[in-house]
Design brief:
Blueprint (H helix, E strand, L loop, with lengths): L24 E3 L5 E4 L5 E3 L13 E4 L5 E5 L4 E3 L17 E8 L2 E14 L3 E10 L8 E21 L6 E7 L4 E8 L2 E2 L4 E4 L11 E6 L5 E8 L9 E8 L8
Antiparallel strand pairs: 1-2, 2-3, 4-5, 5-6, 7-8, 8-9, 9-10, 10-11, 11-12, 12-13, 12-14, 15-16, 16-17
C-alpha cells in the first residue's frame, strides 16, 4: 500500500468503462443542461423543467451521444424528459453521489447507483435502481428500485473498471473506520461478499469520513478527501486527503 498527499484534482477522473459520448449530457442544479457535441463544442440545451437537488443528478447516453435517460434526487426520466412509468419510490430526497453504469454483458440494462442519507452528519446506505431500456417502447423503465448494497458508509464511493474486463468494482468506505468495502459487478449481478481492506495513516480512525473518492485514469490509485464535522456544526472540522494503491484484479486496497 502506498499513501501520499498529492494534488487531489490530478486523480479526479471517472474510471468506469464509459466512452466520452456516453457521458456527453450534463444536468446541473437550477435546471441547467449542456451537451458536449461529438464534433466538439458545447450546446446549451433546453431546461428539462424537472426538480434537481443541490448535489444529485446522473445521466447516460448511447455510443453516438444520444441521451438514454437521466435521474435526479426525485425521479428517473426517459430521453423525452418524462418520468419512467414504474418508478414510484419517494425515498430519493437527500441522496448524493449518483452514478449510472451498464450491467456487464447486458447492453440494455443499467444500474443507477446512489448514496442515501440515513443519519446526519453523514452515514449513508449505498443503493441502486435497475433500468431496462428494452421496455416502454425503447424509452426504458425501472425494474428494481432502492435496493440496498451496503449500510453505515461514508458519503463518497466510486466505480473502477476491472482490468481487461467489462466488470467493475463498487469501491466504498465504512464510515468512521479505516475499512474499505469493494464489490465486483458482473453479468451475474453485484457480489454479496465484499472484499474488505484496511488502509489509512490517520491516527484517529473515527475521522475517516470520505466526502469524495476518485480513481486515477488507469484505476491503480484512489484519492479520498475526508471532511469530518462531528462535534459542533461548522465549529470543528477535520480535513485531509489520502491516496491509496488499488488492485483492480483483486479489489484490494
Amino acid at each position: 500500500m502506498r499513501i501520499a498527499i498529492i494534488l487531489f484534482l490530478n486523480l479526479c477522473v471517472y474510471s468506469i468503462c464509459n466512452a466520452q459520448k456516453e457521458t456527453s449530457h450534463w444536468f446541473f442544479n437550477g435546471q441547467d443542461y449542456i451537451k458536449f457535441n461529438p464534433g466538439g463544442g458545447v450546446t446549451n440545451e433546453s431546461p428539462p423543467n424537472v426538480m434537481f437537488s443541490s448535489n444529485s443528478g446522473a445521466s447516460i447516453a448511447d455510443t453516438a451521444g444520444n441521451l438514454l435517460f437521466f435521474a435526479t434526487a426525485y425521479m428517473v426520466y426517459d430521453r423525452n424528459k418524462n418520468p419512467m412509468p414504474s418508478y414510484s419510490n419517494p425515498q430519493l430526497i437527500g441522496i448524493d453521489e449518483m452514478k449510472v453504469a451498464p450491467v456487464p454483458g447486458q447492453p440494455n440494462k443499467y444500474y443507477l447507483f446512489y448514496n442515501y442519507q440515513l443519519t446526519y452528519p453523514g452515514v449513508r446506505s449505498i443503493r441502486y435502481s435497475l433500468i431496462d431500456m428494452s421496455l416502454n417502447g425503447g424509452l426504458g423503465d425501472v425494474v428494481a428500485q432502492h435496493v440496498p448494497i451496503d449500510s453505515n458508509m461514508s458519503p463518497a464511493y466510486t466505480l473502477v473498471t476491472k482490468p481487461s474486463s467489462q466488470d467493475y468494482w463498487i469501491v466504498a468506505h465504512r464510515n468512521a473506520t479505516d475499512s474499505f468495502f469493494c464489490r465486483l459487478v458482473t453479468s451475474s449481478g453485484i457480489s454479496s461478499s465484499p472484499v474488505v481492506s484496511t488502509a489509512g495513516m490517520n491516527a484517529t480512525k473515527t475521522e475517516y469520513r470520505f466526502t469524495d473518492l476518485r480513481p486515477s485514469h488507469d484505476g491503480k490509485l484512489l484519492a479520498g478527501f475526508c471532511y469530518t464535522n462531528y462535534t459542533v456544526i461548522f465549529a470543528y472540522a477535520v480535513r485531509f486527503i489520502e491516496v491509496f494503491d488499488f488492485n483492480g484484479t483483486s479489489g484490494t486496497i
